[in-house]
């Protein structure tokens, strides 16, 4: 054991075992600590430092070179370009790696990486992002949004879908509802066009249809070609700009 009541300065390689320093400790070369070391003052290390036991520093600590702390499979490595912390109990392992451009946090294959303005969250089985009472879960089954107690939540800010597998928004659904309603109104109008009156050979008519706030105008006619054959045709135009037509040919006997 070594006890130093004042400052201790070491130039060159040093090996310290069960050392207590109440003043400042300065090491210019490599320092290897094999036992417990207690420092009451400032620790300055300019070379590589390896700690294999307990280091207790009560004052300021300055390290100007590489720092490597290792206990079993758990390590803490700091050098001029990165800082890496790995905690490994033999079954599970977690690590934190930091450089000037990248931050990575992983645990058994899952984790988060941020680099060049992009952040990637990875889960080997699933990944969950939670804000307040709302959560988003990503797994092999897909993406699930839920609120408190698993209640459904509203997803806002969805752009109009373009590709076949894009999501649609309420605006697109409302547009589809208007078109469908206008088409129904047009069909209703076309069915109300009058037929040929008895004893006549042709007819022409106009009809109006309205359904679910949408309207359509239809016009058409019929011609009795022979006593047993009739030709009918109609056109309709709806309030949303859709135009449709139909032609029919029939026989009677």
TrEMBL record:
Biological process according to GO: protein transport
Domain Trimeric autotransporter adhesin YadA-like C-terminal membrane anchor, chain residue ranges per copy: 197-253
Homology family: Belongs to the autotransporter-2 (AT-2) (TC 1.B.40) family.
Keyword Signal: yes
Trimeric autotransporter adhesin YadA-like stalk domain residues: 154-184
A cellular component term, taken from the record's GO annotations: cell outer membrane
Keyword terms of this UniProt record: Cell outer membrane, Membrane, Protein transport, Signal, Transmembrane, Transmembrane beta strand, Transport
Subcellular location: Cell outer membrane; Cell surface
InterPro entries tied to this protein: Coiled_stalk_dom, Pilin-like, YadA_C
Primary location class: membrane
Record's protein name: Trimeric autotransporter adhesin YadA-like C-terminal membrane anchor domain-containing protein
Organism: Falsigemmobacter intermedius
Tree of life domain: Bacteria
Pfam families to which the protein is assigned, alphabetical: YadA_anchor, YadA_stalk
Gene3D superfamilies: GSPII I/J protein-like
